[in-house]
Amino acid sequence: MTDPVLIEELKTLVEPGKVLTDAESLAAYGKDWTKHFAPAPSAIVFPKTVEQVQAIVRWANTHKVALVPSGGRTGLSAAAVAANGEVVVSFDNMNQILDFNATDRTVVCQPGVVTAQLQQFAEDKGLYYPVDFASAGSSQIGGNIGTNAGGIKVIRYGMTRNWVAGMKVVTGKGDLLELNKDLIKNATGYDLRQLFIGAEGTLGFVVEATMRLERQPTNLTAMVLGTPDFDSIMPVLHAFQDKLDLTAFEFFSDKCLDKILGRGDVPAPFETRAPFYALLEFEATTEERADQALATFEHCVNEGWVIDGVMSQSEQQLQNLWKLREYISETISHWTPYKNDISVTVSKVPAFLADIDAIVSQNYPDFEVLWYGHIGDGNLHLNILKPEALSKDEFFEKCASVNKWVFETVEKYNGSISAEHGVGMTKRDYLEYSRSAAEIEYMKAVKAAFDPNGIMNPGKIFAV
Asked: Domain FAD-binding PCMH-type: where (predicted)?
């Protein structure tokens, strides 16, 4: 734990009342959505300015105090967990939209701006911020950048890194860098901006970000299609991609649907039940486009790839169809799921899922296993639900024992052990399955250049 004298010194660097050490605050701000590690920070500090962030980092360097960044705390890799007496740097008070440029379609945000706040701002300006996921109402832009957040629109719009025009960062040395200066074209050596995207705060803290916006989509329309087996989903994807520019293509199993319907606040999409479901979205800009979607649906039915389906006819129905997918993570949190967020190239998905499913079925015969994910970009979410009779520690231990086989399969398919949740602490011991030993050494060398004293979120991505 940090010396009380140092905490008193820390308090002089920010406004009064902006350093908390009470037990409730430590527990709340020391964790994220994972439940693998108990939070144990020594203090929470709330800077309001870039200068205050620099002062905190320089203080930490002087006294060799570890810092952990904290945003919306919706992460799923324990990247924002302070489990070893670190000082948590919360960006809740750096939450303003600072500037907007209509010509460049850019908006300047502080790191604590909530994703939904940016989405709403863009909508008010007649524009669109397309990075979207279930935690958009609480996740923050700084955290999104730190994990290179993806979500449900990646098939059309890409990951967070596609939308970062520029940023200001405070490095592990306390230096302030302005990266890329919002340029579209900039061929002047290394793009350090891209190093900080996905770095999970291990190189420094994002203190300002210029985000690009897009035109608003027109008449978004969703379809939910029931398929007789998983192998039918990929032909459905190809059929619709041949005819439409999809903005999303998701899938979930019948077990996931059971959990959602059990909530009682979302209606079933149609009466027929199916083992798997695909949810796709497109812009129905013309009547002809909607007709093309229906014709493709009929083609899929005739081929035996689809059992039944529905297409949204209103904004409310669109939202209800999306709830079938977006509510899954929140709904199953009751069962303390063990999560794997894995990916391969889209063409390898069917064989990859079959191999992983065989491993899981063999080793977890008594566990309930739920599959869902962003299958249009090759990202699968494997969720194993904890039985009531098992303690959390016993359950996680049983699941972790099979990780070696799961990740060996990921490696065999040249995939990723973490498609969009980051590495944090939950995946750091498995990094070698997605990165070579040489890559990891170069990554460590990059960290040492920006953070020579190792104070920036230590123990995340790779062990200290």
From this structure: 37-216
pLDDT at 255: 96
> pTM, whole model, 2 decimals?
0.94
Sign of dihedral through CA atoms 408, 410, 414, 419? negative
**Alpha carbons 343 and 288: distance in angstroms, whole number:** 34
Specify the CATH number for 220-329; select among 1.10.287.180, 3.40.50.300, 3.30.70.2190, 3.30.70.260.
Answer: 3.30.70.2190
Half-sphere exposure of 80 (CA within 13 A, CB side): 31
What is the distance between the alpha carbons of residues 241 and 140, in angstroms, rounded to a whole number? Answer: 32
Contact 188, 144 (CB under 8 A): no
Count of Cβ atoms closer than 10 Å to residue 217 Cβ: 18
Helix (H/G/I), strand (E/B), else coil: 400: helix
* 6: confidence class by pLDDT, cuts 50, 70, 90: very high
Domain segments of the chain: what residues? 4-93, 97-215, 220-329, 336-448
pLDDT digits (tens, 9 = 90+) for 348-395: 999 999 999 899 889 988 899 999 999 999 999 999 999 999 998 899
CB 280 within 8 A of CB 240: yes
DSSP string over 380-411: EEEEEEPPTTS-HHHHHHHHHTTHHHHHHHHH
Counting every residue written for the chain, the total comes to 464
- Could you give the angle at which helices 403-412 and 349-363 cross, rounded to 10 degrees? 160
Strand partners, 281: 222, 248
CATH of 97-215 given 3.30.1330.30, 3.30.465.10, 3.40.50.1820, 3.40.190.10:
3.30.465.10
Is 160 in contact with 139 (CB distance < 8 Å)?
no
State how far the Cα of 370 lies from the Cα of 47, in Å rounded to an integer: 40
% of the chain surpassing 90 pLDDT: 91
Structure confidence by residue, pLDDT tens digits, 224-238: 999 999 999 999 999
CATH 3.30.70.2740 fits 336-448, yes or no: yes
Instruction: Give the phi and the psi of residue 55 in degrees, each rounded to 5.
Output: -65, -40
Q: What angle do CA 312, 123, 130 make, to 5 degrees?
A: 70
